[in-house]
Design a protein that fits this description.
Radius of gyration: 29 Å
Distance between the termini: 36 Å
Helix content: 55-70%
Number of strands: 3
Number of helices: 21
Strand content: under 5%
CATH topology of the largest domain: Serine Threonine Protein Phosphatase 5, Tetratricopeptide repeat
Largest sheet: 3 strands, antiparallel
Bound molecules: zinc ion
CATH architecture of the largest domain: Alpha Horseshoe
């Protein structure tokens, strides 16, 4: 399919380039004599295509199609197709070929520059790409923001959060830190405050690993100033306060998740349990979970409450709660927990097999999904491994889709 598409696009591109080149040659006097015969490279390219040698055909066509301001878009399109096909080395050659023509208008040279930087990112040559993008930021007003966005991509891949924070801060609108950005028409990506907020969380996690809780707290407060809806900052702050030996403060912070985004309350249960236990207030956790469930019910909270009931009030209380809720909120994980609670008193061969089967089914299914690209996984990632968006992954049971577990 891709090859067929490329073949069609190439044919059109060469035809268009030919026509434009011919027009150019007739009016200005070009390199080819278009009134006589086409260049030999064009025939060679056609032969290669007919023989099925697409790689050689691409090389021949690139040589045949004269580079000038009018055929420029065709070359850019060809390079981009090659990059998307994963033929990055060829894409680099096409874009370098354009950059070797200083006679092209500056705007076109800058675009070639940008495309070459993108090729280098695809090839994993991040240092080279970074140099090109930094030049573009200085030299090209038109591509400055897009180049800065690509620099962020590079610093995220390198986990260089200081540089990422520096560049993202430059992308913020000057007059207000929290207003929406005004970017180029072709600028894509998440809002800058949301990015800054996650970069601050990354820095905070580094500080927490070094037991530098004060600096960590500073980064998390900054994260919430950039984006007050950043649940990751709240959860990380709760975790920090548990580790720093402030369980009461941790409980207060984690309870604020209910107002910030109730979809994430179930994610905070383990942290809350640690905090309540450290504060000798374990009994209050169940009350808080039940209140949260009343306000915003979901399957994950059903499980958390049942588990807490089991520990505090015994298995009968947990089974009763599960039975009451499984009918209206059916889930494999709920069923597995109910069977596990049964099997503690009534272990039979059949029950053990049923439980093992359900557990295998649960283990094979994804619990989380990215709301942006649909990536599915077993754990909550703040940075989606699929689309590289931040904070777009949620518990599937929140959405109550047909395949929730
Ligand atoms: Zn995604």
């Amino acid at each position: 399919m891709n090859d067929l598409l490329l073949l069609g696009i190439l044919t059109i591109a060469i035809g268009l380039g030919w026509w434009l080149g011919r027009r150019s040659a007739t009016t200005k006097g070009g390199l080819w004599d278009f009134h006589s015969t086409p260049p030999s490279q064009y025939y060679r390219g056609l032969n290669f295509l007919l023989d099925g040698s697409q790689d050689s055909a691409i090389d021949a066509f690139t040589k045949a199609l004269e580079v000038n301001a009018e055929t420029f878009d065709t070359h850019i399109a060809l390079g981009n197709i090659l990059r998307r096909r994963g033929e990055v080395e060829r894409a680099i050659k096409v874009h370098q070929n354009l950059l070797a023509r200083p006679s092209l208008p500056v705007a076109q040279l800058h675009l070639s520059h940008l495309e070459l930087a993108r090729d280098y990112i695809s090839a994993g040559l991040l240092d080279r790409s970074e140099r090109l993008l930094k030049d573009l930021v200085t030299e090209s007003g038109a591509h400055k923001r897009v180049a800065q966005r690509h620099l962020l991509e590079i610093y995220e891949a390198q986990r260089d959060w200081d540089k990422a924070l520096e560049v993202a801060s430059e992308l913020l609108p000057k007059r207000s830190l929290l207003r929406a950005r005004t970017g180029d028409a072709d600028e894509v990506g998440q809002s800058v405050p949301a990015l800054l907020s996650h970069y601050c969380c990354e820095k905070a996690e580094e500080m927490i690993d070094r037991a530098d809780f004060q600096s960590g707290r500073g980064f998390l407060e900054q994260a919430l100033r950039y984006d007050s809806a950043c649940v990751r900052a709240t959860m990380t702050l709760g975790s920090l306060e548990v580790k720093a030996g402030n369980p009461d403060r941790a409980i207060k912070v984690l309870q604020s998740l209910a107002q910030q985004d109730s979809d994430y309350v179930a994610e905070s249960v383990n942290l809350l349990r640690d905090a309540y236990m450290a504060a000798n207030r374990r009994g209050e956790l169940l009350m808080y979970l039940k209140e949260s469930f009343k306000r915003a019910p979901n399957n994950s909270l059903v499980l958390s409450i049942a588990e807490e009931l089991h520990v505090c009030n015994g298995s009968d209380a947990a089974k009763l709660f599960l039975r009451d809720n499984l009918e209206s909120r059916p889930s494999l994980r709920g069923l597995a927990l109910l069977m596990k609670l049964h099997s503690q008193s009534e272990v039979g061969e059949d029950e053990a097999l049923e439980l093992a089967t359900i557990n295998k089914l649960v283990a094979g299914r994804s619990r989380y999904r990215c709301g942006h690209c649909g990536f599915r996984g077993q754990s909550l990632h703040w940075h989606c491994p699929g689309c590289k968006h931040w904070g777009t992954i949620k518990d599937l049971s929140i959405t109550r889709e047909a395949d929730y577990v």
